[in-house]
Amino acid sequence: MATAAQIKKGYLDYVLTHDEKPKSVYSFVKKLKLSEADFYAYYASFESIEKMIWFELTAETINEIQQQEVWVQYSSREKMLSFFYSYVELLKSQRSFVIYSLKNHGKRLSTPDVLSGAKPIFESFAEQIINEGLESGELADRKFFSKRYKDALWVQYAFILNFWITDDSEGFEKTDEAIEKGIQVTFDLFQRSPIDNLFEYGKFLAQNGKLKEKMGF
């Protein structure tokens, strides 16, 4: 009986050797000496294999960093930095697949459909970190906008992946710099800033407009 792992391994071997997906499920399973029923018992399509790989890579990273003793001491910003540094480190062992998968799916300005396997678990993870930051006061709780914080982090996720696959610097040091700068800027926007104070001051003046009249201004 075939296993999901056998099929996944066979698929990876094929696409990394031929730089394209198999012509059909029938021709693919024939080479593995399996039946189509064996394939469809685990996967609906070749794309679903890739979505599962992305899901597993993301889940593995989240699980590993949450097991670290220092995890509970991290701020929300540090937790997200830890995720991306650890994620890229894990992806190094699958770099050929990552490059193949991202370059063969979707347009440059859109998020590849294969990442839809990773998106739900990443957004759930990001939302948990954001909520912790909102509760602790680390992040600014802004009406309407707070709910979009996780969307900004997903944009960072896609950007960092696309940056990494074209990074030719030694030890991918430019990717580390992109992570550092990207997450720092993003979390700076999430935190309370002078513009928040300006809006509150404007709101105060609007609510207390009669104060000006009483003081003769």
TrEMBL record:
**InterPro entries for the chain:** Tet_transcr_reg_TetR-rel_C_sf (IPR036271), TetR_C_23 (IPR041673)
Give one GO term, molecular function aspect.
DNA binding
Q: Is DNA-binding one of the keywords UniProt gives this record?
A: yes
Tetracyclin repressor-like C-terminal domain location is 79-205
Keywords associated with the record: DNA-binding
Pfam families in UniProt: TetR_C_23
Q: What is this protein called?
A: DNA-binding transcriptional regulator, AcrR family
Organism annotation: Pedobacter insulae
